[in-house]
Structures are given as structure tokens and as C-alpha cells.
Amino acid sequence: MRLTVSILLILFLGLSEGYSQGFFNKEKVENNRNYLDQRKWSWGYYLGFNSLDFKIDRIAESEAVLVTKNVGFNVGLIGNYKLNNYLDLRLEPGVIFSNRDLNFTAFGNDDVAALRETKAAYVYVPLVLKFSTKRLNNFKPFVTGGIGIAHNLSSNQDNPDDNSAGQFRMKTTNYFYEVGFGIDFYLEYFKFTPSIKGVFGLSNELIKDNNPDSPWTSNLDEINTRGIFINFTFQ
After folding, report:
1. What is each CA distance from 179 to 145, 155, 228, 234, in whole angstroms?
2. Which domain holds residue 124?
3. What would the DSSP string read from start to end of 153-186?
4. For residue 165, which phi and psi values (nearest 5 degrees)?
5. InterPro entries from the xrefs (predicted)?
6. How many domains does the chain have?
7. pLDDT digits (tens, 9 = 90+) for 187-205
8. Which residues contact 136 (CB under 8 A, 6 or more apart)?
9. What three-state secondary structure class fits 37?
């Protein structure tokens, strides 16, 4: 909730600043009209934050696995190809750092056995379509949708140890789809874009323990990553 409120506040402040600088005035001179709007190819980078979660499917009814989410960090590059005035195709390779804690409550008061920390460093490469409205002076809202592949550098997939040795393992390669929205602000020397998007896992990341009766994984059917990303792009 705090994260969502913060984003709405940032977008509101951005719009307020845009208004104070004349973004909405009919007489406003359009910044970077030729440089950014007419080029087929453009490049940029982004910085941002994420809050990743797990969607957990269980085989049978049992105590839920609780997920503690922490704020992570994103950084990456953007390659943008202009298809027409309202549609762009983008490649947005980046790195995502996150940390989630899994609490297996069936272990009662044994906190050491019940808690598993799942740190992740994803190399994420999404292919995204960006649908924009008509530019109004120096701002342009848009929505996005895309698919991506991620390589988890911290997956422990090839580790022979499992939860009995304190190691929670996940698959290395995973697939995602994403949807989002944002606003392009055309400033004097560059384009600044705050955006928010949801990312949803399509593949099961769970690797079950070697013991088929493992109290950690025997009742788990599937684990998928999902989360919210807040990015600030500079082009």
C-alpha cells in the first residue's frame, strides 16, 4: 500500500510540475520534437524498485506458506523502435535484485526450520509493445504489454542439497508476461518517464526436495513469481 501511494504521489507531483511549466498550455513549445518523435531508433536506461511476491499452489489443504516481501532494485537499458506515431516496439534488458522470505508455518515455533530466505538476481529480457496516446504539448500517456525471459543467477537449481540442508531451490530459467502504464514527459534535453507495471510468472519455479515426503515441498504443486515494478526511464 505504501509503495502504491508513493507512486501515485510521484505521478501527481510530475503532473503538477508539468502544469506549472506549461505542459498543458496550448502555446507551449514542444521539447525535443524532431529528436525523439521522428527517429526510428532511440535508446535509454531505467532505474527503479520492485516488490516481488510468490503465487503458491498447494496439492492439498494445509497450513499456508507465508511470503514476506522486501523492496528490491531494478536497472537496465532500453532499445526503442518506432512502428508509428502511437506504437513502439521495445527491448528492455535489465537486472532485478529481490529478496523474499518463505515461512512454513507447519513447523510451529521452530523458526530456524520454518524460515527460508530466497534471494534472487534475475537477468530479465522483456519484449514490450508500447501503445501511446497523441502527444499533448510535452507529455504523452501510454500503456504497455509484453513477454519476457528471466535467468535467475541465485536459483540453486544445480545444488545437490535441498531443504533438509537448509537450501530452498528454484529453477534458473523462467518466463513472464507484463502489463503497465506511464507518462512520457518531454523535457528540454531528454525524455523522463515514470511508469508502473505488473509482472507475472508463466512457469513453475519450484524444484522439489530429494525426499518425496519432504515436509517443505511435498504439498507444494507450483510456485510462480509475481510483482510490481516502478521504473524511472531516461531517453
Report:
1. 4, 25, 10, 20
2. 2-234
3. TT--TT-S--GGGT---B-SEEEEEEEEEEEEEE
4. -110, 10
5. Beta-barrel_OMP_2 (IPR025665), OMP/PagP_B-barrel (IPR011250)
6. 1
7. 888 899 999 999 999 999 9
8. 23, 24
9. helix
